[in-house]
């Protein structure tokens, strides 16, 4: 009779390979990103749809795979003991093999099986760790979606084969849980700390970028803190009295335009009556429609300093206000909060000079507030203004262009049109043009002053 031991060893190896495939499929099913599968499906890749359905409802497939892994491991272990019993007498003296492990049920059947069982478990564990723990899981991390797509037909066959065992196991588990008074539907989910750890692990493996982790943790930081944590304190705020004269309002708007909004109060910041934007101030002054701050200010939006920062985000999204006025526990004015303050907590500090020192500021209505000393070439790159000299000899700045166009030193409020664009002189610093507002003009036939 032929020696059955080589065939037994081959069967064990094949079982471990099948078990490794089950582990590969399980890891692919758990690691597949539904967002990526959904994107491919929306792009028209119909082959991906079954994989997306499996990722959306993985429970039955995972149960079948895990049942298969357990079944094969037990079967491989039993065959391993048989193989060890056949191999051991060839390498171990008969008296030791018969006694088994010294001191462990010596002379009994249990002692006889102890040493082969130990050797079998050790060898199979080493092979399983190499095949499943290293190779299979590593391969699944490379491209889980593709592996899931191609292994899905076999996974479904496995589910059909193990359906009877799964059915029996589910009912037994349910009975045990009822006896122990454990709700099977209770799922604690992932805690915030666990998600933080997952993000850190994702960053180490390269799946998550450092900036992405910082942003997500910034959202957590926002969710745990009230708006009072991020507000600009009242002592740092520039504000306008409701009776302030136009000239002083204009000077404040130009000097503190980086603030973008001014609280309007009646005598003191504890009596805030409105809010006005720098843009509305400048437009009202330029169009000679100034009738006081009351005519252009909007109503203030008050919130308590204990309000959640995430709720403040919701207020900004609804468009109720671009600025929130924070009230302390005594009803006094504590400070202001803008959406920029919250965004900086997520993405990090934004450039401090972006709003204050930027020579060209794009406005919400499509116009531009520009410094007079901006190079004319920079203007030509941003605005497609026909007729701007590419290599002017007489001037190099926007202010020089306006002086050439006007033929004299203009006054504050002077307006000049040039090839579809209107230039308004917003501010003069003595004889120097300091600020201009540039906006596109519709249906202008020729430049004029």
From TrEMBL:
Coiled coil: none annotated. It comes from the Bacteria. GO terms for cellular component: plasma membrane. Signal peptide: none annotated. It is a multi-pass membrane protein. The chain crosses the membrane at residues 6-30, 70-92, 112-135, 147-172. Keywords: CBS domain, Membrane, Repeat, Transmembrane, Transmembrane helix. InterPro entries: CBS_dom, CBS_dom_sf, CNNM, FAD-bd_PCMH-like_sf, FAD-bd_PCMH_sub2, Ion_transp-like_CBS, Transptr-assoc_dom. It is found in: Membrane. Residues 1-212 form the CNNM transmembrane domain. Pfam families: CBS (PF00571), CNNM (PF01595), CorC_HlyC (PF03471). One of its GO terms (molecular function) is flavin adenine dinucleotide binding. Residues 296-353 form the CBS domain. PANTHER family: HEMOLYSIN-RELATED, UPF0053 PROTEIN SLL0260. This is HlyC/CorC family transporter.
